[in-house]
Input
Amino acid sequence: VQLQASGGGLVQAGGSLRLSCVASGRTFNNCMGWFRQAPGKEREFVALIDWIGSTTYYADSVKGRFTISRDNAKNTVYLQMNSLKPEDTAVYYCVADSRYSAGYYFQRQQGTQLWAYWGQGTLVTVSS
Output
């Protein structure tokens, strides 16, 4: 599975951005999600969605502001980010894996090693 993320950029605090991640290869039954890594910090979980798109999980820091969704016909997962804050500044990585349930990934949400496939990252910068 190859993942190509896009949509990052510079936005003012309070603004919005939508990230996209297109998957190619063996995409069937993959959970997909997003992690981010701010300068000088460890990579952290942001959100994930199951294959059907009916189950989603979010980090507490983004709940109510970010929405993850997917379009399996386009092999694409989205991250709609609203009410952005300077602390959302980070490189955002798309991830995919098919071995576990969405709940399993969420229970171990900082377990980056659970995700077999990673995109190249897209930079989001939120100015104050």
In short: The first strand starts at residue 2 and ends at 6. The chain is about 5% helix and 50% strand. The helical segments are 102-107.
